[in-house]
Design goal:
The complex is a heterodimer of chains A (206) and B (203).
Chain A lengths: L1 H34 L4 E3 L2 H9 L12 E9 L5 E8 L5 H11 L5 H12 L8 H14 L1 E3 L2 E11 L5 E3 L1 H6 L4 H7 L5 E7 L9
Parallel strand pairs in A: 1-4
Antiparallel strand pairs in A: 2-3, 3-7, 4-5, 5-6, 5-7
Helix pairs in contact in A: 1-3, 1-4, 1-5
Chain B lengths: L11 H37 L3 E3 L2 H9 L11 E3 L4 E4 L5 H10 L6 H12 L7 H14 L2 E3 L2 E11 L5 E2 L3 H11 L3 H10 L2 E7 L1
Parallel strand pairs in B: 1-4
Antiparallel strand pairs in B: 2-3, 3-7, 4-5, 5-6, 5-7
Chain lengths: 206, 203
């Protein structure tokens, strides 16, 4: 119920703090939740990817995450420094349908926050929850180490409940993954991101 | 009800995030401010739903049991008398369990705002989410007409996942039990394995 009520809360918040205020709020909430998740350490990518598949990592709080182990990210020396990860279903899609069937329609406040984020922060959101979501992953990645290296998260692509897709060109370039490969993943997944060792010298990185 | 027409389950992560959102809000606006937000969002949610009309009380009870009424959107409602309704599992159970598993113990502000609500409005909230639930039910009930008359909602007792029970003091409880048509003993029996006991009656 709280998830459906969230849309009403966002409406209220937009009136009081503006859409930019709601974006800031969501980002702070992402920081706050990540700070309560604790640290994690893994011997290597194999053990981390098994932990992701079994739902044991902080990333698993979002739902089922699939490590795409056939899509490794390599550094300038050709060493594997990261992988792509994907969720078959966006966390917020069930809430959108629940709101639709509880109230009759989705609140326009969802799109207002999403558009604010896309225009001024990162053009990747397909719903207001992406705002929180992206920051949350970025923050927990800092607390997870693989082979002693903390991670960094890059949100690459999203697909909204009505089929619209977004691909982050800057992040796709950063991890040196072909945009068409990412687009193909969106046929089967609704949220695709990369986890890479912090400080790795990526081929396409800046 | 066929599976595809039932309300889909939410991802508990969204509810956890909402709980954190409320905690962050409380740091900005304090406990009274958070209470106002919770009341306001529940009222907005209730008034966003379409009005309902039923020809008779039995027809209305049927809509509650089958999940067709707005009052049954988030919970399975089971009447024990004409006017006494029960909810077996709180609509917040799952999110609370996920929060406890993934994040830790519920932040104290959820209890503090419930205490504020109990002192200012009605003494029936164990934690913050009950402010939303009780206010939503009250708002939604006011949108329903049965046989041309409005419907009034009143909370009888609330039991949280951890077994904490909140109910009005004895002097206010007895008249409510009479309106519900149940005894004190029956209420105790219900609270053993139900999350909420509440009243719906013609206004």
């Amino acid at each position: 119920m709280l998830d459906v009520a969230l849309a009403s809360l966002i409406e209220d918040m937009i009136e009081k703090a503006g859409a930019d205020g709601v974006v800031e709020f969501w980002q702070r909430v992402g920081d706050a939740l990540a700070s309560r998740m604790g640290k994690e350490a893994y011997l290597g990518w194999t053990s981390f990817n098994v932990a992701v598949r079994e739902g044991r990592t902080a990333f698993s709080i979002e739902g089922d995450v699939t490590p795409l182990t056939d899509m490794a990210i390599t550094d300038v020396d050709g060493d594997v420094v990261g992988y792509l990860y994907a969720m078959k279903q966006c966390c917020y899609v069930p809430t959108i349908f629940r709101t639709r069937y509880a109230v009759g329609r989705m609140s326009p406040a969802d799109a207002v926050v999403m558009e604010e984020y896309n225009a001024n922060v990162h053009n990747i959101a397909v719903c207001n929850f992406c705002v929180f979501h992206e920051r949350f992953r970025e923050e927990i990645a800092k607390n997870v180490t693989v082979s002693g290296n903390p991670l960094v998260s890059y949100l690459l692509a999203t697909r909204g409940w009505s089929g619209e897709t977004k691909i982050s060109l800057k992040n796709v370039a950063m991890v040196n993954i072909n945009e068409e490969h990412v687009r193909a993943l969106l046929r089967n997944y609704e949220c695709v991101y990369a986890l890479v060792m912090r400080g790795a010298r990526l081929k396409g990185g800046r | 009800m066929p599976a595809e027409t039932r309300m889909p389950e939410c991802n508990p992560f969204v509810e956890i995030a909402t709980a954190l959102f409320l905690e962050d809000l409380a740091t900005k606006v304090g406990v009274p401010g958070l209470n106002n937000y919770l009341v306001s969002l529940a009222k907005n949610l209730g008034t966003a739903m379409p009005k309902e009309e039923y020809a008779s009380w039995p027809e209305f009870l049927g809509a509650l049991v089958s999940g067709q009424s707005i009052l049954a959107t988030f919970e399975d409602v089971q009447p024990v008398t004409e006017h006494c309704m029960t909810t077996a599992r709180s609509p917040f159970d799952r999110a609370w369990r996920e929060y406890a598993k993934r994040v830790g113990s519920f932040a104290p502000v959820h209890k503090e705002v419930a205490d504020y609500f109990n002192a200012k409005a009605r003494p029936t909230a164990v934690t913050s989410v009950h402010i939303v639930l009780h206010t939503f039910r009250e708002t939604a009930a006011a949108r329903i007409h049965v046989g041309g008359k409005g419907v009034r909602y009143e909370t009888l007792a609330t039991a949280w996942v951890d077994g904490t029970v909140m109910m009005p003091p004895e002097d206010r409880l007895d008249p409510l039990l009479a309106r519900a048509g149940i005894s004190h003993t029956k209420l105790g029996m219900l609270l053993r394995n139900h999350a909420d006991v509440w009243i719906l009656e013609p206004a």
